[in-house]
Each structure stands twice: as C-alpha cells, then as structure tokens.
Amino acid sequence: MIKTDIYGGFPFRLQSCVWEITLACCFNCAYCGSRGGKARDNELTTAECDDVACQLAEMGCRRVSLIGGEVFMRPDWEKIVRLLTSRGIKVCIITNGYRMTPELIEALRHVNIESVAVSIDGIAEVHDPYRRKGSFERALKTLGALTAAGIPTSVISSLRADNAPRLMELYNVIKDYQIFAWQLQACSPMGNAGNNALDVRFDAAKVISFITKTAKTAPFIVGAADNIGYYTPGEENLRGVIGASFSGCSAGLSSIGIDSVGNVRGCESMYDEHFTEGNLRERRLIDIWTDKNAFSYNRNFDESMLTGKCSGCEHGTVCAGGCRSYNYFTTGRLYENCLCAKTINI
User: Is the pLDDT assigned to residue 286 strictly greater than 90?
Assistant: First the structure.
C-alpha cells in the first residue's frame, strides 16, 4: 500500500522510473550508452530487487520501464515484473527483440505487462551493422509475435546521421504491423557511441517535419522523445499525445533512473558518475530523493542558467533548455540544446 505521507510535505513526487536490471546483453551495440554486453559481477539480487520495488511503491511511483542490457537475459526478469505489478506499478519492457521465444511470449501474456517496446533503428542495412547480422529480421519477427499474442507493442528508434534521413524506409516496413506507437529519439554520444566517435548529428527540423506529416495518416502514434524539439509549430502534437507539449527535463523532479547495481540518477540516460546521487545498498530511496542537495541541476534551475540560443527564449521558463542528458553529452552545457529547432522554419 502506498504511504501517502512518506514525503512529509516534500514538493517533488516520484512518478516514473527507468530501471536497468542487468547489463547482460546478446549485443554490444556500437552506440550503446551503457556499454551493455556482460552483466556486472554485483548486480542487485532478486531479494534486493524486491526491496527496490517495495520502495518505489511506497513512494507512489506509477510506472517503471525495465531496460538492460537485455532484460530477458536476466533469469528472474519475470519475478521482478511481478514484484512491481503486484504493487500496482505499470511496467514497460524495452528489448532488442533478438532472443524472443514462444516461452517468453507466453510469460509476457501472464505478468500483467503494460507494453513492450522493440528497438529498431532502420531497415536491415542500417540496423544490422550496429548490432549483428539478422537482427533486423529477428526484431520484425518479435513485433509479429508480440502483437499476435495481444501484447501492446511499440517501436523505438535512435536517430543518428546515417538513419535519420531514411525514416520513411523503416516506416514503410513497420506500418504493416499492429503496433500502437513509434517513438523517435536522438542517439546520445555517450558510452559506446562516444568511444566510437559515431556521428550522431542530424537535422532535427527534418525529423520534426517527418513526424508531423507521417502522424496524420499513420496507423499508430508517431512521436518524438524529449531530446528532440522544441516549441516549433505543432509542438502540441509532436510528443504523440495531443496537447502534451514538452515541459522540461523531469530528472529528479518526477523521475529517476536506477542501474543494475543500485546507483540512482535523475535519468538513466545521464549515464555518468557525475550524476549519481546515491546507492540503494547504502541509503533508502526516499532518503536519496528528499536529500536537499540531490538533483540540484534541475531542482535549483532558474531561467538565468540558460545559455546560447536558449538564453532569452520565450519558452525558457518551461522548456528549461531541453534534455539534460543530451545537452551534457553533446556540448557539456546543461542548459543549452543543440537540437532545438525552434528557430528553424519547418
């Protein structure tokens, strides 16, 4: 049962969490932000995950997205899902779709999952070189199997210089699958992407234009993630939900990230020790969350911190400079976004 008084009047309430339950993965993608591949030696035990799930529920967290690595490579993934859903928390799983089996599909049908998101970044000649040969076809097979089983399914695409101009090719393939949404997000130059010096630059205005046009007739929701934008004409339709304009980075304000050894960050895309606020093996989540010095980059934000073309922007008090993670890993300037397309005529 959620303890409604656990915050003791503290103004910031936890609503969502992205939880990396393992770094084990069947891939070692060239742009993986967490450098997934091999599980850490000291990943949280099942009992520790039970305690984390309990703490999230006590704090009133409404939704958890489970990520890896590859979630399904953790043997107790199903139990972790149940630990969350049994406490009233909605759960989404993000997967590369490579290891999906009939047994996994059957398990997913019975764990009260909210949805499964499959990562697909382009047609085979774009997708496979960054992962492994045949991974695109496996991902499509997973889409078909999930939707046939009645499991709500979406697609997530991470955009770089090479695949952003070819979105229509991918759309023409996935439009025939019964998915409910397609989310486009910018690939951040962190982890493997940074090490491999991948070119992640793309024309945000063209992507926004693609979303705006495609969403009108697509058989599913098409939307941009929070690291693409901001406040161009049609912003209220860009995020996949009518009227859901970007309202600033939520890291440490209403959301957190937890990694597989219990480190807590405002966002799991802020994959740098600089943003670690504490560890769940050392402190309770409520104590980390309500620490007066935690998540200061967002909790202490004011408009005067904005730099570059974000400084003086009419939407600055709301947008707050866009995605903190993307800002940090692209320019190192937290309050200035290089993908803001507001000043570009689209």
Answer: yes
